[in-house]
Fold each of these.
Amino acid sequence: MYEPRIIAFLCTWCSYTGADSAGIARMKSPANIRDIRVPCSGRVSPELIMRAFNQGADGVLALGCHVGECHYDTGNHRAAKRIPALHALMTYAGLEPERLRLDWVSASEGERFSKIATEFTEAVRALGPIHWKMESRRLEEAAKRMELESESVPLPPADCAGKTDAIRLKARELLSSQAVECVIGYEVGPRGRTRPVFIHSPEDVERLVWNPGCVNNLTSYLDDKLTPVGGKEPPKPVAVVAKPCDSRAVNVLVAEHRFEREKVHVIGVTCEGVAGEDGNLQFRCVNCQERTPVVYDTLVGAPVEGRASDVPARRIGQMEALAPAERMEFWLGEFDRCIRCYACRQACPLCDCPVCLFERDDSLWVGMGIGLDEKRTFHLGRAYHMAGRCVGCGECERACPMDIPVCLLNHKMAQEIEKMFGHRAGMTVAPSPIITILSGEYKEG
Amino acid sequence: MTDQWASANKRWAVTQEQLAGWLDSLAKVRTIIAPRDVSGVLLFRKVADSSQVAWGFGRTVMSVKEAFLPSTERLLTIHKTGQEVRLEVELAEGQQIIFGVRPCDARGVRMLDAVFLDSNPVDPYYAARRANTALVGLACRQVGASCFCTATGGAPDEAGDMDVMLYETGEGYLVEAVTERGRFLIPGGEWPQTRQPRPQVQPPEAAFTVPAREDWPRFFNQAEYWDRMAERCHSCRVCAYICPTCRCFAVRDEALPKPGEYERIRCWDSCEGKNYRLVAGGHRPRSVKGERIRNRMFCKFMYFPEQYDLDEAACTGCGRCIDACPVNLDITEIVTELGRLA
Amino acid sequence: MSDNPMKPYLGRLAEVKDLASEIKLFRVELMNGGCEAFQGYQPGQFAFLSAFGLGEAPFGIANACGQGNTLDFAVNRLGSVTTGLHEMGEGDILGVRGPMGNSFPMEAFKGRDLVVLGGGIGGAPLRPVIQTVLANRADYGQLTILWAARHPSLLVFTDEYEAWRSAPDTRLHLTVDQADPAWDHNTGLITDLLRKVNPSPKNAVTITCGPPIMIYYVSRMLGEMGFSPVNNYVTLEARMHCGLGKCGRCNLGEKLICVDGPVFNMAEVGNMLETFL
């Protein structure tokens, strides 16, 4: 007989005490709930909640002080921002929304605690056990993936020659005057593929090009290039050729104190869109309003009109139209192909933790194995970490050798963050609204 | 290439229908793995019958390495109760046939054999899978833009590493049994024998010459060269995971749901990863990208062959790494430029 | 070796004692077939110890075969596996795989003077060499031991120093980078001590083990002092996962430390040592 297993994160000052007072007053609360006492609901990081689900919890309850009553002033504000964002992600990934609940219970509200605990347990009981697993038989059948809406748009004309000349001119100037140590741009390789290039001397600037093959997000090299290496001289400035989407990453990186703005000379290029594998416009470009970089030191190219398309939003809509179980099956089917190569993470300009949470030697957040559970944990975890930070450059999806629609997760989170906070990553120098930067802790250098 | 088979051994000519029928009957008694369309990605997966094969397939995204060295594999199940410990090992069972293997991939398997079977001690997990698996190969009629098998000693119609070899002709296939095991699979009496020669195939232009193994040591200290080559590398490891011969793995114990139960697993890893050589205490050899790329190239063309007594480089020329690398790092380019260094 | 070299033998922890700060000595009694596997193991070989549930790591066998009926291992608590091992007590079961690797050419060392240099826990794999020499004293020439650590609390096998000192034709020199008030031996790096002791290269071999940077600088100095690289032996370590020459992780150029080593002479690996740092 299925008894739901529920983890409840209760804050010491309010909800835990509330739960206590419910017990003392002999009010009935379900025995299914395992309490985990935390100092504050703001401590309840989404990783903890995901871990609870990964370890088999059928439901997770997070209870904090009422807004305005937090013992730490704004701790519960963090919970109020982060947990709904996580909730949107988990629901989108196929977890029934009723399995996660955030609510507020004060120390004296024993009855309220009891009511919420009972309501929640019954809601989770009605759903049945959590169904993260897909029958392996189902996976072996290599079920056809649901057709995602797409739009095939021919590449618009662009003044590639003019932009190429302008980039080379600027690069020559910057390198000759030694304003920068290198220019990170694009070149065409011997096989005809456009790829990143690092130009260190003015004689080599003729290698730089601009063409529809300029797909890479070159800002992903900035963090490494500009991080001081112990004992060596501080790194010299670099220049980077940036498309509008790439340029947004510069703002996020600066907001997160990865390097100083003055260390980068952004050669921003207006962009008509880049080519996908079939020679048409790459999918991320079909709906793009920012055709001029949002931050630049040098601007190359004439202004370009934005292009609107509702197809990306309709893709998200397709997912949302599915029932949770179907949605879950879709995502598990996609994650099944994953080989945990981490190409998505490495290609991302913003993913750069010294030791990735999901690659720890002690398997704290996820095991090392390349199994479905682990892969689901990694992808959903990373999508959460990108919320409010992802600039939509699409490199993660392009780098994936298995064509996993990683962007479909990231776009959803971007949509949620915009809905909740009116924030779009990288449009200004501002961190993600669900990241709290503690004042005084982040110092330069 | 002399066509010895026509005179010395049997060769059969079959139609597409006969081939499909053969697969269907094999599927009743063996597990068949073949190229399939998995949500638009061409991968080797189990097929229930010939209709599930993605006929007309080219190069799969992943090599057949997965069938012998899976991305994750349980080595031991560990039961701990109090002070008692009990260990269990389960080796793979069940006969299987991999259909549609390209010569480059089969060569990759042979190189993995050099590591796991031919060098002491024998790896029992790999050995079990290998003993239970037959390879039915398909010669390449055309070569891909990134293929370079001939530069590393292979050929698009090389049959030596298969059990059964197929060659596409205009009307169907020629079939050859390469090994005893292969002969056993062929329904000899039912198929018409033929003296038709193997179809000619245009091999890829040898895109470059691989420097001789003895030349490689002098490339080692060219730090500036390696740094330059590696500059755009993201250390993402795709190249190693899709490669038919890369076999580095990590071993770790993970908890199982039941208390006191653990599994010791091994799974793929790659020297391109930033933290591959990280040790407890924080020391991290090969922390520079150029050192990692250098190690991978040296491993393919010098270390691996030296260590496991191969006459040729441990690169099959399948070209997957060239196409999959997000920043177009190109092994042929790296090696060509290397050869030009003074 | 057993038919499954990835499956450990079980061993019982017969004794655990503190060797130095955060370093313990484990004495392991082998069970179920392990005894046969380890019969006749040689100085320099190593084994993998499993803290079941956490993982495995390689450790040099710190005693010579025949010196006691257990395998000795010095374990420094640094990561998850070693922490797991440190939390074990006498009677607990762990896993042992081995013996692995090559060994010191003790036969070739006979009749020659030996200079043994151990840095920190690096002294542990050198102890079987010292024990073998002392047990067959007449077969070997002069034995000079240079033993170093960052701090007196990190010196290993301190309770054996008396026995070493009092053996015939054997000298022990100690040094620490940073002394404490009770310290009355040398202070300074092992390279300073080496220069001071100034052993003669004539008919001598050196055996060094310690952190990579120490091996690097000691080797350079030995070269300056007239030792030929072919007479300088080192035992190296790297992160290992299989110990059997399969997983590829421990390569030093085309050599694998687990099967071509861990014992090398500097003529073989001297030019590769920089990749180790």
Amino acid sequence: MLTPSHFTAVLLFATCTSVVFGVTQRSTPRSMVRYGLYCWVLFVAAVIAAGWLMWIIRR
Amino acid sequence: MASKAQTPAPPKSQGFLYSALILGWLVPGAGHLLTRHWIRAALLFVAITAMFSLGLAMQAKVYVPNTGDPLEMLGFAGDLGTGLLYFIARIFSLGQSTVQLVTADYGTKFVVVAGLLNFVAAVDAHNLRIGRKV
């Protein structure tokens, strides 16, 4: 049984999802890579921002 | 001299028009194989299958057809997107019937999103097949 931490699960989710978004939403290999990386950074950044927001609310 | 408006001729696709859509739904990336986009097909297969497998490894709940809770019905629709992977999971009872751990909740979302991403990939394969996308 796999029991990743919340952040590890986010990284796995972001990686798989970004690959599919990059491949399906762009036409050229270069733009696919750039869009995939863009999506990955947005996923991870959004989670870190939400995490800090919840930490502030909790205090 | 007046120039004649040029419109791109629709590409001629042989065989059943929706074959890439259906094949792409049944097996992740197979629609792209049909359109001879090998690397895209491999990337989609690995990403979607990995996401589905990771979800099952996290003790995901696999939704079954039902007419009760609307969220359960939506979950079933999402799971169904993985095509043959869903039926394999059902046949071999790979998923759980209830969520008992926090990671199982993550896993359930992994499986549903894998199905939704496979729908996106299948539509992309269809667009490649009919020439709407290059």
